[in-house]
Q: What sequence folds into this?
């Protein structure tokens, strides 16, 4: 699967798990939606999505991500 496709999957997973009142989502929540056994892959997908300008990260220790409007 291409990285663009995987990065888009993390965006869809974030949209699925976040509530209307949340701006940032802890990355472990969408990672569990994708496949809890493949957390490293979900982290790589999130990093690629950030490089594309689709995600912004907050506190590194908390692993929080903000899905940006330009994300697919």
A:
């Amino acid at each position: 699967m291409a990285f663009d496709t995987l990065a888009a999957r993390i965006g869809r997973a974030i949209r699925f798990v976040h509530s209307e009142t949340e701006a940032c989502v802890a990355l472990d929540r969408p990672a569990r939606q994708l496949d809890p056994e493949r957390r490293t892959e979900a982290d790589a997908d999130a990093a690629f999505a950030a490089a594309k300008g689709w995600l912004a990260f907050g506190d590194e220790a908390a692993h929080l991500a903000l899905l940006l409007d330009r994300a697919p």
